[in-house]
Amino acid sequence: MRIILLVPFHERGYEELVEYLEKTSLPVYLPLPVELCREPMLREYVSSGLSSYTRVWSPLLDYLSSCRGCTCYLTLKYFEDAIDTSIKLLGLVFKARVFNKVDPAEWLGIVPERFEPLAPTSWIGVLVVDRFIEYALLLNKGVVFDRVVQVEEFIPTPLDLLLLVKSNIVEWNCNLKSLIDWIIKYLSEYVVPSRSLTEAYDKLKRSREYRELVVKCTSSDLIQIYF
Q1: Is the overall model pTM greater than 0.90, yes or no?
Q2: Comparing C-alpha atoms, which of 95, 103, 102, 89 is closest to residue 160?
Q3: 46-56, pLDDT tens digit by residue?
Q4: How far apart are CA 132 and CA 114, in angstroms?
Q5: Which domain range does residue 54 map to?
């Protein structure tokens, strides 16, 4: 059995992930640094530099101690690079909010271009995916699986969409600035003032304006099915 389990990257999503894992006897592949699975003694050290992630991972980190069939498939460097990209993005958000300057080329220059999935493409059991770009790359590669399960509604964020556009997986049929404006709005008006990533994600899912923009600006079946 080859299952892809889609888990939104927020606190509630990981709580629901643990509830799912407690009910399965299949091997599980997790989007965490390999160090967290291989070296239990290093977990505190590894986690100390990833506080923005460990807040979300917290329920799963507790579960890892008793999970014998769990394998982590990402590297510590992946998360270090992601944090570096996030810092640069926040700099562009500040520039846009304070100086009203948005250069699409500058935004595209920061986000990484992705052609290959970082998740395993051959596995038996449950492959956990918490980023839309990773799921899109698996589908784009023609990976064979038995079924896809969502712990809850799983939609791409504006930043996910920019990554998909940069990687030529999705075509954006509107002015790219309209998507970048939504990244700015999501980070500055949803993520920063919210008490949790769960709250920010829920606000995004409820936004009719965002959903209508995505439906209008991309005809990709990969995206449309989630809107």
Answers
A1: yes
A2: 89
A3: 556 687 898 89
A4: 12
A5: 2-224
